[in-house]
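Project outcomes to date are best conveyed with an example. Our students and postdoctoral researchers have been running inverse folding experiments weekly, and each run begins with a structure described purely in C-alpha cells. The record below, which covers 545 residues, was selected by the lab manager from last quarter's runs and is presented without edits.
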C-alpha cells in the first residue's frame, strides 16, 4: 500500500541525496552533510523559507559604452529599449542565478508553475519587462496559493500577449486563452465522452469562459496598474470590450451561472467567480496533485498511487484552499517519496527521473563548485558571454531545452508527453549536448567557467580515501549517483586514474602532489581526475535522480 505517512527513520546519505536533488537546484556535499541524520519532516521544512532574491533585477550591459542597465525598473516605456530578444535571455540569467544559489523549494516550485502556466519567452510573450513580471509572479506564489496564482495569471501582461486574450472582445471573441486555461492550466480535459465534450468540461464551457475573459487588456505602461498584493504590473479591464451578459456553464460545472458585470471594477469579481468555479471541482485539485507527483516522484502513476497518494493529496489541497506547501511537504516527507512503502525492486522511486538540462547544469555547477562571472561586477561577461552564449545557446539548446521557451503552450514534453515523459530529454539530437557539459568547461576557456577537480577532491573527499583509487571512486560515486555501484563499476571508473598501471600509481601521484603542491605534480593528478569526473558525469547513473 502506497503511504503518505512520514518517513519514520532519519535520513541517511542515500535519502538525503534523493531529497536534495528533487527539492532544490543546489546540490552540495555540505548540504548533504546537514541533511544526514535529520528527520524527513525537519529536512523538508528547512527548505520552505521564502528566500529573498540574491540578485534583485537583471542588468543589460549593452550597448557597450551606454548600457541599458537596469531597464526593467526604468520609468521609460518598455518599447523604447532595443534588443528585446537579448533582454529576455538576460532575465532568465537573472532567474537562474537566484535559483542556483538558493537551497530552497521556492525555485523548484516556481519552475513547476512555469510548466503549469506556460509562457514561452521568445514566442509571443511580448516585451522583455513583461517576462520579468511573469517570472516574479511565479516566484511570488511558488510557496503560496495555486488558486491565487491562477487568478493573477489572467491579468499578467506576458500571458495576455502570449495566448491572445488581450484581443478577446465581446464582438470578436478569441477562445485561445480560455481553451488553454481549462485544458492545460487548471482542470485538464479528462477523457473525451462525446463530440466537443470531455469529462471535465465541454466546448460550450470554453466559449462561456472566453466571454468571462473578454475585455481584459495588456497594459503597455507598466506603471499604470499595480497589483496591491504582488506589487507587480498587471493588465487592465475594459468594460466597453467585455461581454456583460450572464454566462451559463455545463453540467460539468453543475450548470453554474456566472453573473455578468457591467463596470470595469466588477469585471474582476466576475473573473474571480469563474476561477472559484473551476477550483471548486475535485478534478482540478487532482490534476495539480498528479502534476506534482510526476514532477517530484516519477512519471508513472500506478492505480495504487492514484488511490493512496493522489486522492488524499487532493483532499489536503482542497482542505487548505489550494495552499501548495501542505501538499508538497507531505509528499516529500512521506514513506512513498523515499520508496519505503513497498518491497518491489521494480518500482523504485530513487533514481527514477532523468535530470532535466536545468537540473543537470545546476547540479554540476553546485556540486563541483564551478566558478562563473559575478553578474554584479562582471556583468557583460556573465550575461552575454557566460549565460547567453554558453549556458543558453551552448548547453540548453543542444541538450533539448529552450530555457523558459518551450515549443508549445503545453510546455516541455518531459512533463506531459506520454509515454516517454522525462525520457524525452534523451535523443540522438540531445545526447551530445549533455555529454559535453563538463568536458567543455574543462577544456574551453571562452566559457568563462572554471572547474578545479583537484581542489574539489581536496575539499570534499576524506584524505585517506583520496589516496586510494578504489576508495576515491567509491566516495565520488556515493556522492554523485543515486545508488551505490558494484565492484565491476568501481574497477571500470578506476581505470581513468591508473590506466594500465596498478593502484599504487595513483597513490604515489596523489601523495607526491599532497607533499609538494607543485604545479607539475598538480597537473599530473588533475589530468587523471579530469578524465574521471567527465566519465562519472556522463555515466548513466549520474543522468538519473
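After processing, the design step wrote out the following sequence:
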Amino acid at each position: 500500500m502506497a503511504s503518505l505517512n512520514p518517513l519514520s527513520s532519519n535520513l541517511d546519505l542515500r535519502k538525503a541525496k534523493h531529497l536534495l536533488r528533487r527539492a532544490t537546484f543546489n546540490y552540495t556535499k555540505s548540504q548533504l552533510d546537514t541533511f544526514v541524520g535529520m528527520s524527513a519532516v525537519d529536512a523538508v521544512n528547512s527548505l520552505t523559507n521564502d528566500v529573498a532574491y540574491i540578485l534583485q533585477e537583471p542588468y543589460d550591459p549593452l550597448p557597450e559604452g551606454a548600457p541599458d542597465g537596469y531597464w526593467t525598473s526604468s520609468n521609460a516605456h518598455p518599447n523604447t529599449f532595443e534588443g528585446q530578444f537579448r533582454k529576455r535571455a538576460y532575465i532568465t540569467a537573472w532567474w537562474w542565478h537566484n535559483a542556483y544559489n538558493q537551497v530552497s523549494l521556492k525555485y523548484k516550485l516556481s519552475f513547476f508553475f512555469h510548466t503549469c502556466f506556460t509562457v514561452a519567452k521568445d514566442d509571443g510573450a511580448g516585451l522583455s519587462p513583461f517576462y520579468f513580471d511573469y517570472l516574479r509572479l511565479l516566484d511570488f506564489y511558488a510557496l503560496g496559493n495555486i488558486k491565487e496564482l491562477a487568478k493573477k495569471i489572467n491579468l499578467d501582461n506576458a500571458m495576455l500577449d502570449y495566448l491572445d486574450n488581450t484581443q478577446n472582445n465581446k464582438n470578436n471573441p478569441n477562445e485561445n486563452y480560455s481553451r488553454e486555461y481549462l485544458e492545460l492550466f487548471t482542470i485538464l480535459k479528462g477523457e473525451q465522452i462525446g463530440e466537443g465534450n470531455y469529462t471535465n468540461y465541454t466546448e460550450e464551457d470554453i466559449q462561456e469562459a472566453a466571454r468571462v475573459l473578454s475585455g481584459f487588456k495588456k497594459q503597455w505602461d507598466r506603471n499604470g496598474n499595480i497589483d496591491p498584493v504582488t506589487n507587480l504590473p498587471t493588465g487592465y479591464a475594459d468594460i466597453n470590450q467585455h461581454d456583460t451578459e450572464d454566462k451559463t456553464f455545463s453540467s460539468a460545472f453543475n450548470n453554474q451561472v456566472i453573473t455578468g458585470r457591467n463596470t470595469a471594477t466588477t469585471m474582476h469579481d466576475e473573473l474571480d467567480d469563474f476561477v472559484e468555479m473551476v477550483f471548486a471541482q475535485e478534478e482540478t485539485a487532482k490534476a495539480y496533485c498528479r502534476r506534482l507527483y510526476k514532477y517530484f516522484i516519477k512519471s508513472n502513476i500506478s492505480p495504487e498511487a492514484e488511490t493512496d497518494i493522489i486522492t488524499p493529496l487532493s483532499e489536503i489541497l482542497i482542505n487548505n484552499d489550494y495552499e501548495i506547501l501542505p501538499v508538497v511537504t507531505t509528499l516529500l516527507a512521506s514513506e512513498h517519496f523515499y520508496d519505503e512503502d513497498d518491497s518491489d525492486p521494480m518500482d523504485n522511486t530513487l533514481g527514477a527521473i532523468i535530470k532535466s538540462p536545468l537540473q543537470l547544469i545546476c547540479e554540476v555547477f553546485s556540486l563541483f563548485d564551478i566558478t562563473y562571472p559575478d553578474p554584479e561586477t562582471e556583468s557583460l561577461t556573465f550575461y552575454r558571454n557566460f549565460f547567453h552564449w554558453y549556458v543558453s545557446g551552448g548547453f540548453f539548446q543542444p541538450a533539448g531545452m529552450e530555457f523558459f521557451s518551450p515549443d508549445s503552450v503545453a510546455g516541455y514534453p518531459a512533463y506531459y508527453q506520454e509515454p516517454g515523459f522525462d525520457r524525452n530529454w534523451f535523443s540522438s539530437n540531445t545526447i551530445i549536448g549533455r555529454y559535453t557539459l563538463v568536458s567543455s568547461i574543462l577544456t574551453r576557456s571562452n566559457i568563462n567557467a572554471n572547474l578545479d577537480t583537484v581542489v574539489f577532491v581536496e575539499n570534499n573527499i576524506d584524505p585517506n580515501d583520496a589516496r586510494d583509487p578504489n576508495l576515491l571512486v567509491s566516495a565520488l560515486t556515493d556522492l554523485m549517483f543515486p545508488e551505490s555501484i558494484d565492484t565491476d563499476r568501481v574497477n571500470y571508473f578506476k581505470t581513468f586514474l591508473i590506466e594500465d598501471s596498478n593502484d599504487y600509481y595513483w597513490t604515489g601521484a596523489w601523495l607526491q602532489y599532497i607533499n609538494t603542491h607543485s604545479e607539475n605534480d598538480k597537473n599530473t593528478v588533475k589530468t587523471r581526475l579530469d578524465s574521471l569526473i567527465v566519465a562519472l558525469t556522463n555515466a548513466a547513473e549520474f543522468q538519473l535522480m
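The CA atoms of residues 120 and 404 lie 6 Å apart. The mean pLDDT is 96. The training component of this project remains on track.
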